[in-house]
Design brief:
944 residues; mainly beta; 38-stranded mixed β-sheet; Plug_dom_sf; membrane; cell outer membrane; Plug_dom; Iron complex outermembrane receptor protein
Length: 944
């Protein structure tokens, strides 16, 4: 679903934004030489990571070392890049990789299950960025291309770079940015290191389910050493974690009514849950680096990650305004029913269990060989593989099959946070009233009614990517054009999606859970399944609900019937992409007009072949028909790029980037599968509007989709201070074409399906011109633009005065404007998923004499969030603005017998900020309210 906004910026406003961007850039450029930090050092001053303020050369560690390393990467790069660097071996500065990235300029994270997972860069969601591991594209355990960063233990990485401009040698660059996870290189350490760490975790919300825990842990060990005269290096790491979360969840079905005093908005239905999660992850990494001479350098990397997540969810669904209960005692405030009493409510009591298992493998082997004094050959081979299986179990009770039992009287009252207290009359712990059944009679297999007392989804995914790359690079002597590089890359990616789902019904007679065959419509809850502790939903006013073990019910009290509805069968598919990339570039490094100039000019030629295999399914007169389908398409793209970094003043740079980039559509949009429907009821002589009442229709993917295209201009002004830190102002403009409209529809002639009809039906369809139907499939019909600005200040206060040595601040701010329009609605601009117009982050810290204290606050304005909708399908809703506060204190022993030992205490989400979504641009119409609580950590680490 795409939400549209009627607000926008005129051409005049866009011009003003562009002019303001240039004006600010010019002002910064003029002001930099005269700032308080005008004491300068040569541009070639090395980044030592040490305190050079004259107090004895104290070695900087912790967050100051991390910020210094990130600043050095940013300064040296000709690309526009922001980085997060490890504070020490096995120690990124935050709880997770996503947490660290979310404090970079222009980068935001969406919380899922209480953890930062989905990243948006410059207003574009995870589908528009690419994640690399040591420069190699990675697969994902998710449903699509967006990487779930939980699969990568943060202890394994030296730094994480976010490239925001493109270069011809950067293969698989994203439109919004490219995230490159960089593992430690053992030969760069130059010393043996053994690092151990352990950390305990506690969630601030007590156990919401009796079969869960609020406590977790995280432990890691890293070993780095060099051998054979420092020509052979080895780095090994292992990591284990158990991460709990407790979520108070509230969800509505929406609101009935029109929002007037006579017809106010009334709560359509509610689905509150308490959810307890436990994520278990185990990982290992190995790097072998061999450099016997300056002529040859070989590096082999291996990473393995295994994780399992178990979720216990218990709650009650209340069909209200969208169902048939009678309403009374309605209190209306400005067209909104703030209190309502509903009679004859037939609620569905749910005890669910979800389990996910996933594994991720990554192997890479890089070899660099000097062919001559000026020409080198580099060959890189990699393999990335991920697989995931889900077990999504729903079990339910009600007061009787199809509303045949006693109804409830429920009073709902709106609270200040937008949720409602829900006060029922029935005792939802009474097993004499509530049995295993289908309370609303919603079960239907597409042709007849079934007793759906539960449901099971078992999707599985495999993602496999193999890549081989070779390049030659050389040098030119005595020229500003200092070098050249040509190369080629081949990759093959195959994503397999397989689904199986089942109706669950009480054991006994009958076949396939159908009512007509005599399936029992209800059954008592086995006493062996009851957990003895009925949990409350008191945060919403519900005293207690019946609590049972859903796995016991599944294994002992349910029969299952395969779900063979066409919409379920057509989900199975594979998508295969073969990509040949050739590139070339010239590098620039020299002095022009007395100024140091670096950069590159080049381009990529990319030939793509994409194929999908699946099936087409339809149902007619109760008979499901399946036919295999496959399609292959190919196309070629040319992507030019140019970058430049000019040192206008000592340690003051202007960086420019111009490029054409692309990113491929979601993998589920490239599937060939189609769900074809033939509506016999619309075969009428008087069907005057077949567009609204089509006989034939189809829903599915589009193998012929092309990648999103973007023409990019990036400008960055950067000033680095001699005592450390920097200030940067960055502007960016993206002109987007071939933007995919996921809700695209077009007319199609279904004459080839006339054979499925009777001769009489064929005659009516042909005589009335009803062979034309509607196909719903994504298409590249959108285009538009993104314009934004980023500002960053990395300021160690010793740059102001030595009295404040150890104190510092790292702050970022971002504004992004977007306007994307589709061909079928060229007037209204869509709201991009993941786009917050305003984002910001600030970290204040003190670090000296082994002590460390820091606090980070990050803010994002409202945005379109991707959440799980019906049957776990992704859907989009507006999320409220949020601000998250994290803090940490610690101490490292720097001398004596405890040298190398450090202790820390951390707090995450100290503001206890809930995740809230709403609809229709009306913040009163809350749809989701999820409170995750605070997380507390106590840790210890030892390095020797």
């Amino acid at each position: 679903m795409i939400f549209r906004t009627t607000t926008g910026h005129s051409a005049r406003t866009r011009f003003a934004l562009s002019a303001s961007l240039l004006a600010l850039g010019g002002a910064i450029g003029v002001m930099l030489p005269a700032t308080a930090f005008a004491q300068e050092t040569p541009a070639t001053a090395p980044d030592t990571g040490q305190d050079d303020s004259g107090d004895g050369g104290i070695v900087v560690t912790g967050i100051r070392a991390s910020l210094a390393s990130s600043a050095a990467i940013k300064r040296r790069s000709t690309l526009i890049v922001d980085s997060v660097s490890a504070e020490d071996v096995g120690k990124l500065p935050d709880v997770s990789i996503a947490d660290s990235l979310a404090r970079l300029p222009g980068v935001t994270a969406q919380r899922l299950e209480g953890r930062d997972q989905r990243l948006s860069i410059r207003g574009l969601g995870p589908d528009f960025s690419t994640t690399l591991l040591n420069g190699r594209e990675q697969v994902t355990v998710g449903d699509n291309r967006g990487v779930e960063y939980d699969q990568y233990p943060s202890e394994f990485f030296k730094n994480v770079n976010v490239y925001k401009s493109a270069d011809a040698s950067l293969i698989a660059a994203g439109i919004s940015g490219t995230v490159d996870l960089r593992m430690l290189r053992p030969l760069e350490r130059g010393e043996r290191v053994i690092a151990l760490s352990a950390r305990g975790q506690m969630n601030g919300i007590d156990n919401l389910n009796p079969d869960s825990s609020r406590y977790g842990y995280r432990a890691s060990a890293t070993y780095v050493d060099q051998f054979a005269g420092d020509t052979l290096g080895i780095a090994l790491g292992i990591s284990a974690a158990q991460t709990p979360s407790q979520d108070e969840r509230y969800n509505t079905w929406g609101y009935s009514g029109s929002g007037t005093a006579d017809d106010p908005y009334v709560l359509g239905g509610a689905k509150p849950y308490v959810q307890s999660n436990m994520l278990k992850r185990y990982g290992a990494v190995a790097t072998i680096e061999w450099q016997p001479s300056d002529s040859f350098h070989s590096t082999f990397d291996a990473l393995y990650s295994h994780f399992e997540e178990a979720q216990h969810l218990r709650g009650i669904e209340f069909p209200l305004g969208f169902s048939d209960p009678t309403k009374s005692n309605i209190v209306v405030d400005n067209g909104f029913a703030t209190a309502t009493t509903f009679d004859n409510v037939y609620a569905i009591q749910r005890n669910d269990y979800n389990k996910r298992k996933a594994e991720n493998f990554s192997l890479g082997w890089n070899n660099d060989l000097a062919l001559t004094d000026t020409i080198r050959l580099n060959v890189d081979a990699s393999w990335s593989h991920a697989k995931r299986t889900d077990f999504l179990l729903e079990t339910q009770t009600g007061s009787g099959f199809m509303k045949s039992g006693p109804g409830d009287t429920v009073t709902v009252t709106q609270k200040g946070n937008g949720t409602y207290t829900i006060v029922p009359t029935l005792d939802y712990t009474d097993t004499g009233i509530f049995t295993l059944t289908d309370p609303q009679g919603w079960g239907n297999n597409g042709t007849q009614q079934v007793v759906q007392a539960g449901f099971l989804n078992r999707p599985s995914f495999k993602d496999d990517l193999k890549s081989l790359r070779a390049s030659l690079n050389g040098e030119f002597a005595g020229s500003v054009v200092s070098g050249w590089e040509v190369g080629a890359n081949f990759s093959r990616r195959k994503k397999t999606s397989a689904y199986a789902s089942y109706f669950l019904c009480p054991t006994g007679a009958g076949e396939n859970c159908t009512v007509a065959s005599g399936t029992p419509t209800s059954a008592p809850v086995p006493s062996e399944a009851l957990l003895g502790e009925n949990i409350p939903l008191d945060y919403l006013g519900i005293p207690k609900m019946l609590t049972w073990d859903p796995l016991y019910i599944y294994n002992n009290a349910f029969d299952r019937a395969f779900d063979n509805r066409p919409s379920s069968l057509v989900r199975d598919n594979t998508v295969t992409e073969k990509v040949w990339t050739g590139y070339g570039k010239l590098t620039i490094d020299g002095v022009v007009g007395g100024k140091n100039l670096k950069g590159a000019i080049g381009g990529q030629v990319i030939h793509s072949e994409q194929r999908s295999d699946g099936q087409i399914a339809s149902v007619l007169d109760g008979v499901v028909t399946i036919a295999p389908a496959d399609q292959t398409v190919s196309y070629t793209n040319f992507l030019p790029s140019a970058t430049m970094s000019l040192e206008l003043i000592p340690n003051g740079f202007i960086k420019l980037g111009a490029s054409q980039t692309m990113v491929r559509p979601r993998l589920d949009q490239e599937r060939v599968t189609q769900d074809v429907a033939i509506n016999i009821a619309n075969i009428q002589e008087n069907n005057h509007d077949p567009a609204l009442n089509p006989v034939f229709s189809s829903t599915g993917g589009n193998v012929a989709l092309r990648p999103y295209q973007s023409t990019n201009i990036d400008v960055s002004l950067e000033k680095y201070f001699p005592a450390g830190g920097y200030v940067a102002l960055t502007g960016y403009f993206k002109h987007l074409t071939d933007f995919v409209d996921p809700n695209n529809k077009y007319a199609y002639d279904f004459s080839s399906l006339l054979g499925a009809l009777t001769p009489a039906q064929q005659a009516i369809v042909t005589r009335n011109g009803l062979t034309t139907g509607v196909v719903s499939a994504p298409a590249n019909t959108g285009r538009g633009e993104i314009l934004g600005m980023e500002a960053t200040l990395d300021l160690p206060f010793r740059a102001l005065t030595s009295a404040l040595d150890g104190f510092g601040v790292f702050a970022t701010g971002n504004y992004t404007y977007s306007s994307i329009k589709f061909a079928n609605n060229p007037i209204e601009a869509i709201t991009l998923p993941g786009l917050s117009k305003w984002t910001g982050s600030g970290t204040v810290y003190f670090e000296k004499w082994g002590f460390e204290a820091r606090a980070n606050y990050r803010y994002r304005s409202s945005f379109l969030a991707e959440v799980a909708g019906l049957s776990a399908n992704p859907t989009y809703r507006t999320a409220r603005a949020e601000g998250i506060l994290d803090a940490q204190i610690g101490y490292e022993f720097q001398s004596g017998p405890l040298k190398g030992l450090s202790v820390l205490a951390q707090g995450k989400n100290l503001t206890d900020r809930p995740f809230i979504t709403y609809q229709n641009g009306d913040s009163r119409q809350v749809i989701d309210y999820q409170r995750y609580g605070r997380d507390y950590y106590i840790g210890v680490s030892y390095k020797f």
